[in-house]
Write a structure and sequence with these properties.
Layout (H helix, E strand, L loop, with lengths): L1 H17 L3 H22 L3 E3 L5 E3 L6 H22 L3 H15 L5 E3 L5 E3 L1
Length: 120
Amino acid sequence: MRNRYLPALALALVLCALAGTALAGEIKDRMIARKPLVAALLADGAVGENNQGFLDFRGAKKQADVVAAENQDRAAVYRLIAKKAGTTPDMVGQRRAARIAESAPAGTWLQKPDGSWYRK
């Protein structure tokens, strides 16, 4: 169960290290608070992790507000990191997607770079 929280915690740590602003703290807090809901959606296959570092629906649109909020915060994090690293948010998201795929628990739906889905 702990492994499900590692991607969010790693992202939160990176966010804090790179941004160091009140906004970053607010985003981190929201993402951590929402993590159990996101983990449940991933576990039951309602959503998967796409190849751009965002959640994507795999079935019925359960908790659409949670998914939208998570993706909005991830986009903000990717913009902050991209600005600090001198790259694009898309590149940050793609790199993040690769790390998420590595650490995702068994059973998580993941999207390959070619757009096809598989269950880990």
